[in-house]
Here is the input.
Amino acid sequence: MPASQNTAESVKLDFTKPYVLSINGDLVSGKGTFDVFNPADNTVLAKAPEGTEEQMEAAIQAAKKAFPKWSALSWDERSTYITRYADALEANKEDLITLLTLEQGKPRHSMATSEVDAAIYWVREVAKRRVPVEVLEETDQHTVEVHHTPLGVVGAITPWNFPVLLGLWKVAPCLITGNTMVLKPSPYTPLTSLRFGEIAQKVFPAGVLNVVSGGNELGQKMTEHPAIAKISFTGSTATGKKVMASGSSNLKRVTLELGGNDAAIVLEGTEYKDLIPTLFWAAYGNSGQWCIAVKRLYVHSSIHEDFVKEFVAYAQSKKVGDGMNPSTDLGPIQNRMQFNKLVDLFDDVKTKGYKVPLGGSIDRNQAGNFVPVTVVDNPPENSRIVQEEPFGPILPIIAFDDVDDVVERANAGNFGLAGSVWGKDRDAAIAVANRLETGTVWVNEIHIHGIDIPFGGHKQSGMGVENGHEGLCEFTNTKTMMLKK
Ligand code: NAD
Here is the structure.
């Protein structure tokens, strides 16, 4: 089954056409549609197809039917298809970027472009990865080998903050390892996923990648379905627990990438002035709607006051606005549900009387979901703004005196996604990093990701990893073969 040749013309989509589901290689309408809003003004951006449970069933059966042939291809053959998929995504890149800004809100010229670029890069690079057979023993009597065989049909469930990148992070490793997939995007941001699903139909054999949009119940159907072998889920911890519970019916494999409340710790004596832009973007990039955004910034008390002044001076120059405007630094909050959560959190900050040197008031009557860049100066450790994952452009900057105390505070909650430590004395910073209970920790740098770097959460921030050799292996069954000579 050789991958067919595609020209840039033949894989180019007409982005003005209605949105459709991709099921078994066919582009089909849903039973009805649901509205998708542009978060910059809450007008209806498009109508997305509302997939039915029967359509989800058809997609799962299509993926099941496609599995034997797809998994029987060699890695190189699958790689050829996936590389062509990267080319096809590339041919549609500019339209995907615009659509991402319109449905998600992030600035087109910066974050939306980098998300789509990174996603295409990921697809292209993952196509080059292999999981070779490992020979554990080779004696005169026998051979012991470890093979990594595909699992079958994988269900992918994605959130609304990075719909393109997080979706394709699942697609590429799932397919290269020989599985087939049904992907259900967030109902808040289904459009880019529907389009990359359509693009996939121009490249892959029918049923290899199916995309079905609709409500949360479609996600639940996938987690319960006996024909699905694994769920790859990115979203909130609360939903992740439901996925794990209902996936237990047939002992599904699960990879859960969940929430976080990441701490950044700036140690005594840190020359912080040049770090302020880095720390600002680490907290406010994507308007704070980022699982690994810095959500608590602990700064040693000897520098805390000056740090806050300089941080605020930098932050106040940043412009919140419509992501289609090239002068916008930070876009709106993606949806009204999240916007209202932030309104509630901002009210709590105000009612409790915490110091707010920047921002602090959300205009609830505006058309869009814009939230001002907000800094909360030294709120108490037990405040909501320190304890909860805000998922918005608001950051508490908290003073600390003692390293043991700050480590204890950083580790106190149920989350353990990532963290960072900043300091002049690299060894001292590494010593603190060693004590953080997180899936990832950075020292004097932040938010580095890579195809070969495993990423996952500790404690209730997740289970398993994506990316890296380990991430690829999570799409496989470890099959030990013992062969007598
Ligand atoms: P969410 O949990 O509300 O929804 C995520 C997805 O799950 C959506 O597609 C939704 O339709 C689906 N879903 C909802 N109920 C379901 C159910 N019962 N069964 C199956 N699927 C169901 O999360 P969200 O609000 O879209 O995303 C924000 C959260 O995601 C934040 O907590 C953030 O930290 C987390 N996140 C984590 C990572 C990571 O890699 N760790 C990355 C991005 C976002």
Q: What stands out?
A: The domain at 262-450 is CATH 3.40.309.10 (Aldehyde Dehydrogenase; Chain A, domain 2). Residues 69 and 442 are 42 Å apart (CA to CA). The chain has two domains: 3-258+460-484, 262-450. The first strand starts at residue 21 and ends at 23.
